[in-house]
Amino acid sequence: MSNIGSYDERVKNFSWEIAEKELGWKPGDVINIGWHCTDRICRQGKGGKVALRWEGFTGAEKTYTYDDIRLATNTIGAFLRGLGIEPEERVCLFLDRLPELYLGFLGILKTGAVAQPLFSAFGDESLLVRLSNAGTSAVITQRKHAPKVRKILDKLPHLRHIVIVDHDGAAPLREREVAFSLEKAAPVERFDAHPTTAESPSVLHYTSGTTGMPKGVKHVHYSLVSQYLTAKWALDLREDDIYWCTADPGWVTGTSYGIIAPFALGVTQCVLDAGFSAEAWYRWIEKRRVTMWYSAPTAIRSLMKAGDEVVRKYDLSSLRHLASVGEPLNSEAVVWSEKVFGKPFYDTYWQTETGSIVISNYPGMEVRPGSMGKPFPGITGTVLDPVKGEPHPAPGKIGLVAFKFDWPARMRAYWNNPEAFEKKFRNGWYITGDRSRLDADGYFWFAGRDDDIINTAGHLVSPFEVESALLEHPAVAESAVVSKPDPINLEVVKAFVALKPGFAASKDLDLEIMNFIRKKLSPLAMPQEIEFVPALPKTRSGKIMRRLLHAKEWGQEIGDTSTLEDD
Amino acid sequence: MAEELKDIVLDYVVKEYLEDDSEPLTYDTPLISGGIVDSFSMVSLKRFLENRYRIAIPDDEATPEAFDSVNKIVSLVERFVAKK
């Protein structure tokens, strides 16, 4: 029997109070995610239970019980307070998947400060934009990534501290830098978590926008209620599970379901800090006897590409339940997973802004391969007519995926950007930016983005951000960035580039521009293909017609070209 | 050729992908599984090898395993150079 039991019964009898009661919380009480994920579990008598099993790419291993993570998060919290970090100040985590990333996240929350995780592969420009917008006070990082922070330091006057977690003394610390070693620090037994309340800010994740710079999505401590219950019902997480979420906490899946939910449920989770390879992943599942595996379609397609033979080399019989998130899960992947693992991947759908799963396929409910599933109980989702902004009266028509924005984990604001927040709503509906259709039984079927945002391997990339960075390359006169189909990553970035006079297209220039973007923004934003063109198609008013280029890449009808500058 | 090739690839990886160049990198350092080169960045490394050695490495051969160290990359490149 699954945790959710009957989906229809849960929908009929739903209240978020179910989760509130299980978490021992009622309106008006203090709620602190850092405390709930550590001290609360210890108070239930589970302090000796393994909370985290970590392995690095060199094979180094670390194991932490719930009591260990309680102490570690106390210790980090006390260190930050000692630096003078105040509640609601932003503290960025710019780390590989080290234990300090997971424990630092909860330690920050215990102090009442806001955790701002950033993907460690971000280049200095991506980092600068996000730290500037957030007015970040401290960055917790490692030697390997510190040079990127140093490079932009003079543009960040509000950044008071750079905490290096693996300083070895080989080189002296520099301006504003301070060393902190979790292993060497004296454990702090007693630490009073800040008495945050439901609406106190907790986490700031950045997401790409169609126009303008990335937006900081502000979440609050009450998000715990959604994250806890969705992990329990949609992911079917159970107390005796060995759980592996493959997402990096630089992105929202890696915090909502890679830190908060599993620890709040008191499960044992595993973290593998190593690059992707099918052999390494299967070895990890076998070694750790993983029972619940939450991954992404790109990873699943990469595993499919590695073939069935490699699967048979490992004992994966521990797997009990599989789920997926980040991009549409194609039906072939669902069918393949049933063939090789004996069970399907259950697709889940949500966004940085939703904070927790909002649509899902549920254990015990029929999985329709290729479908996103049905709304989580208590959440009202629909497909809006894009013209009228009202729900389509009958199923089958493609429209905008929209929700009544009223569950605990929903974002509360875009940081310093109320105009962008307002634009996300229409007639009382939150507009996700995705398109889908509903079938007669209430299942959602993904149909694509409603904007120019590129979804590559489950991560959103803004064409605007890439185009802006391209213009900083000395050879680039103008550019247009679109998605192009990719069999593994769903979409990848493609750039059309017109060069300045005096520059000639060449393979070396192509590679130079690719690396320029990779280092400035991130490997995800790097164009995997650059097409040099004499000029870009524009409207008569001079606006680049990205739509035409997109249609060409996807083999679609070009549509109306009557406004083209030069037919 | 192998020794020269090894040094060229090693220098390129250090220059382009290593954020902290004080970290030692050897011919056997795991690049992909060690998180130095991710699957997206692998595309630019592949492009460098193709441009420099005028070869075409099919996507099926450009696997994380085949790119996981300088030594493995050199074996791959040598195989395609020999086919020319």
Q: Provide the CATH top-level class of the largest domain in chain A.
A: Alpha Beta
Care to count the β-strands of chain B?
A: 0
CATH architecture of chain B: Orthogonal Bundle
Distance between the termini of chain A: 63 Å
Could you give me the name of the CATH homologous superfamily of chain B? ACP-like
Describe this structure in words.
The complex is a heterodimer of chains A (567) and B (84). With 567 residues, chain A is α/β, with parallel strands linked by helices. Chain A is 29% helix and 23% strand. Chain A has 17 helices and 27 strands. In chain A, the strands form 6 sheets. A 9-stranded mixed beta sheet of chain A has the order 2-1-11-10-12-13-14-15-16, with helices on both faces. Chain A has a 5-stranded parallel beta sheet with strand order 4-3-5-6-7, covered by helices on one side. In chain A, strand 26, helix 16 and strand 27 (529-532) form a beta-alpha-beta unit. The longest helix of chain A is centred in the N-terminal third of the chain and has 17 residues, at 66-82. The termini of chain A are far apart. The model of chain A has no long low-confidence stretch (mean pLDDT 95). Chain B is 51% helix and 0% strand. In chain B, helix 1 (2-17) crosses helix 3. Chain B is mostly helical. Chain B contains 3 helices and no strands. Chain B has one domain: ACP-like (Non-ribosomal Peptide Synthetase Peptidyl Carrier Protein, Chain A). The interface between A and B is medium-sized, with 35 and 24 residues.
Keywords:
heterodimer, A: 567 residues, alpha/beta, Rossmann fold, GMP Synthetase, Chain A, domain 3, 2 domains, 9-stranded mixed beta sheet, 5-stranded parallel beta sheet, 23% strand, B: 84 residues, mainly alpha, Non-ribosomal Peptide Synthetase Peptidyl Carrier Protein, Chain A, 51% helix
Outline of the structure:
Chain A is an alpha/beta fold and 567 residues long. By secondary structure, chain B is an all-alpha fold.
